[in-house]
Amino acid sequence: MARTLIILVLLLLFLLLLRRRLIHVDLSFPWFVAIIVLGFVYNNPLVEVVLVKILVVAYPIYAVLFLTLFILFGLVTAVLIMVTRDHRRQVLLLRGMARLDLARQEAEFAGKRS
């Protein structure tokens, strides 16, 4: 019962972040959904047995640990992609602003010389 309550609280917090548009749906959404689904699915003991057989590990906790690490790695990669895109946009914006400022300074300088 406590596991389910924790997962439900995480799901509500996730939906709140999504509703307030603090989470971008494009890249990170599937990874967050995977973590929540893994939390719900792992409450079933049959899933533990299937995961152990699929991943060929000795203990069920290792199967969940591997899946969780895989999902978190995917989430970090998605966030890294988003940050890189934002950084590229900022650099392009800064270059454009610098170009406009230099053009304005050149025009002022040319106006003073004449």
Topology, element by element:
Layout: H1 2-19, H2 29-41, H3 45-55, H4 60-113
Helix pairs in contact: 1-2, 2-4, 3-4
Question: What does this molecule look like?
Answer:
- The structure is a single chain.
- The chain has one domain.
- It is elongated.
- It has helices at 2-19, 29-41, 45-55, 60-113.
- It starts with a helix and ends with a helix.
- The longest helix has 54 residues, at 60-113.
- The chain contains four helices and no strands.
- It has 114 residues and is an all-alpha fold.
- The mean pLDDT is 83.
Concise overview:
This protein has 114 residues and is mainly alpha-helical.
Give the overall silhouette: elongated
Detail the poorly predicted runs. Answer: none
Radius of gyration: 24 Å
Mean pLDDT: 83
β-strand amount: under 5%
**Helix/strand-derived class?**
mainly alpha
Number of separate strands: 0
Based on the model shown, name its key terms.
114 residues, mainly alpha, 4 helices, elongated
